[in-house]
Write a structure and sequence with these properties.
With 49 residues, the protein is an all-alpha fold. It has helices at residues 2-9, 11-46.
Length: 49
Amino acid sequence: MNKFSNWLKNEESGQGMVEYGLIVALIAIVIVAALVVLGPEIASIYIKR
């Protein structure tokens, strides 16, 4: 528990975690946008109407 509280108090580690979080959020937004744009085309390949 002491290691965890020291880890939370470390400002550099917290800054790094925020940066990783922003990168993950940006990647998720790009993936969702790509699926919205390409979704119908991908669906038409697998679902023959």
